[in-house]
Amino acid sequence: NMAARQPVHSVLFDNSQDTNQYYGQQPSSQTGGDGLQFYASTYGDQYSANTNANYYSSPPTGDMRASNYDYTSGSSGSFWSAFGTGGFADEPPLLEELGLNFGHIKTKSLAVLNPFRTVPHTIMDDTDLAGPLLFIFLFGTFLLLSRKAHFGYIYGVGVMGVVSIYLILNMMSENGIDFSRTASVLGYCLLPMVMLSGFSVVLKLDNIIGTALTVISILWCTYSSSGMFSSVLHLNEQRLLVAYPVGLFYACFALMTFF
Q: Alpha-carbon distance 183 to 204, whole Å?
């Protein structure tokens, strides 16, 4: 069959054929030695060496959190923003994302240490539990140093006390209070009891001085917490009713320093 023996002409490798008729464009001036013809591309080189060098050459300068920061100057790309210490302009600090605000912890701790000062009703708007967890950890650590391992009792009394006071306050108040805010107030007002457990490491509390310090700590914690609850829930006339269950709560913690 003569038709079957005819050679097949390749569009790419046969120089004798006009390949432009297949593509409808002018050939490029670059032609390989083996008959390959290359056609010019309409796409530019977006990843040239100069572009990469400028993009990764130097980190951004200045504080990216500043309002007048110029994002268009230099090579402040997302690469250095991810590994730099400045971060992005609208990015909150890492400790704030983790729920740790040392300024609020300091403010609430000073409010507990000075219970005779008027407590603002907005002091517990942010119900953080970082401070209470820190105080409970210190309380258990001081008891452990005084050879009293009461971590189980601390956990049990803490959970049952918070649940009980949460239910009592919601029955007494028309506005109500959430569980996390109740735990935050009780945890921050535990600070005088933490100080008492610190004294128990170096002093014995089974005497008159220890008993006096224990009573003072219970009254201190009760007065601070009842003042915060009364201010937040607007229960100024029922402060004594709020102080009674709260005082029993802190008295259970005080017993742990003796036994």
A: 30
Are 39 and 30 within 8 A, CB to CB?
no
CA pair distance 198, 191, nearest whole angstrom: 11
72 neighbors 60 (Cβ within 8 angstroms): no
Alpha helices (runs of H) in 9-87, residue ranges in sequence order:
20-23, 49-56, 78-83
Residue 31 DSSP SS3: strand
Q: CB of 59 within 8 A of CB of 84?
A: yes
CB-based contact 108:216 (threshold 8 Å): no
Altogether, the residues listed in the chain come to a count of 259
The answer on pLDDT for 51 being more than 50 is: no
Going by pLDDT thresholds of 50, 70 and 90, the confidence category of residue 13 is very low
Cα–Cα dist 220/192, whole Å: 7
The string of pLDDT tens digits covering residues 161-215 is 999 999 999 998 888 888 999 999 999 999 999 999 999 998 888 889 999 999 9
Task: Please say whether the beta carbons of 181 and 126 come within 8 A.
Answer: no
**Torsion sign across C-alpha atoms 92, 93, 96, 98:** positive
Residue 84, sorted as left (phi over 0), alpha (psi -120 to 50) or beta, turns out to be beta
Q: Residue 115 has which token pair? A: 């219970």
